[in-house]
Amino acid sequence: MPCDPRSETTRPDRLAPDNLPRHASAVRALQVLRGPRIWVFPTIAVGVVALALSLLYMGGILNPQADLEDLPIALVSSDEGADVGGGRLEAGADVVEAITSAADGSIDWRVMPADEARTALARDEVFGALEIPSDFSASLAALAASSDGSAAPTMTVLTNQAAGSLGSSFASSAAQAAAHGASAQLGEKLTAQAQAAGGSSAPTNATRLMLADPVTVTVEPGHALGKHSGAGLSAFYYTLLLVLAGFVGATIVHTAVDGALGYADTEYGPFHRRRDAVAISRTQTFLVKSAISVVLAVLTSALIMLATIGLLGMDAGHLPLLFAFSVCASASVAVGVHAINTAFGTAGQLVSMFVFVVLALPSSGATVPLQALPDFYRFLATFEPMRQLSDGVRSILYFDAQATGALPRAWSMIALGLVLALVAGLVTARVYDRRGLRRLGHPAAA
Asked: I need a surface site. Which of 40, 110, 258, 368 has the fewest CB within 10 A?
């Protein structure tokens, strides 16, 4: 006797599509797609995110020259002057005066001695330097007397790729333009003096051409980088790895813990599982997730250093310090993500993405210097974590981890961010718990 199909046991958590007509699932999908309500939220959310990403990422990089303001460049004059024709020639001082008086606000020319300029380059305080040598006036006077080009005066542009490739490029271009402009002004004076002399000493066409631009401008690295530093970009990408490790790691921990505690479904391919919910408060859940992420920050930081330094050969020193900084940075980001998820729930992942990635990348100042960004991004840079972390990593990798300027600020911002994240997460979770806002209808643990 054939079995009655109605007597067969069917697992309640499994659909049996083979028992349905082939067109049934397609009809149901079409019916869902025809409903306008299914389109409203995804359409608005995806559209807003796409528009925001486009405006935020592209808005700060399309015309950095137009937004350039107060880019710091050292201006050094070691010129000792020279006695010419019974008078005193101070060409170096004249050049400094000409450059600073012609400044249009895009460059912050910082006049300082040579040793201070080298220190500023080594401390990431300037993007480059323009140096006038001690024999500048003497060489200029000799050139005017001989007119054979044998003693042509020089100016040296010092670059600082460790401060950022684009910023160093801006500084180099500005310094060279200023040097050539000063050379042209000096050339006008030399040419006028040569023509006034007249007689047999009147300048030839070749001499006039040489006197028109008498200064030779050379470019040299002011703060050298290793060959495996990505031309000054390794610090940015290393920082990005730390932020992504904290952000992505926290997202994974958030999903895994909620699944293990029974507050979220767990699916692996076609397999689905939901555990019985554990009676645990939001506060305790936040603490569990944060503790796991802090421990995992040790693992992720070690693996990042193993990959970047051990396997790929990235130039790096102060490895214990770099490891400690990496762990603290990733842990701070992860706890921040958990605090946001505690406050906003499912939407917290989108909010975290904007806080730690979308708004952080263009305001980090690692690729485009802050001095070349619009005011909105400069405002973001005052508190966005990637800016602070990038300065700290750059200080460790490129500037010998000096305890001045960027590195202490980076440490203090990591500590401040971690404290704020813990306080915000605990306060929010506690408020939700006290108001009886339970998850899945299960009472919170005392």
From this structure: 40
